[in-house]
Predict the 3D structure of the following.
Amino acid sequence: MKNRKMMTGEEGQPLPYVSEIVLKKRKIRDELAITRRTQLELGKYGAKKSKKQSYVSDIKRPEQFIKEFRDKELDLIRMKQRAKRPKLTIPKLRSKLLFIIRIQGKNDMHPKTRKILYKLRLRKVFSGVFVKASEGVMEMLQKVEPYVTYGYPNLKNVKELIYKKGYARIDKKAVPLTDNNIIEQTLGKYGIICIEDIVHEIANVGPHFKEVVHFMGPLMLSKPEDGLIKGKKQPYKEGGDAGNREDEINDLISKMN
């Protein structure tokens, strides 16, 4: 009798019937609410995701894999088409010094495209590097044109970039160029003992240009203002963002330095 009373409730009334479908929906709703609340808390306080949360957030749907695969294959096809352009289309070099900025590139890149960008030491978006201009470099830039913009930096921008963004790579760590002793210890054997010597060597593409730029590492530029980089992969001369800007690269450098 006591057990029957417990099954039907304290007052002898039967418990309300809830279908299994409704129970499942409630469970899913509650789980989503907990997940959403956790995401908001992590976003607010900058905490790291747990392994379980990272695993859930990294799960991709089949259509995402298909889209990424097609995008990468399309990128490879376009890269091959750009590589087949006649060498006559490669612009005549107007300076020995180029400054290259990576402006695009995440999931839609083919591994071969990424390999070229890494060879140019452009591993992150909005990173920039000084490069000695050559026909080989221009051919590489032609292959990855949608993901970079480049041109001829003037002395003013070379100096300001090095003073504001320059750093030394020592034991795989970034060290600000605030102490000339650091420069002399590494580059003194080339006659380069201070930051002004670095500016002179890069601006004039001196005999130890390669050693200097590798000593410094890629420069991380400031994120451009809204509308400055529109995300268009068309050539700059056709209204896009990518490709050769020649002397006009200096306007972009000034806004991102």
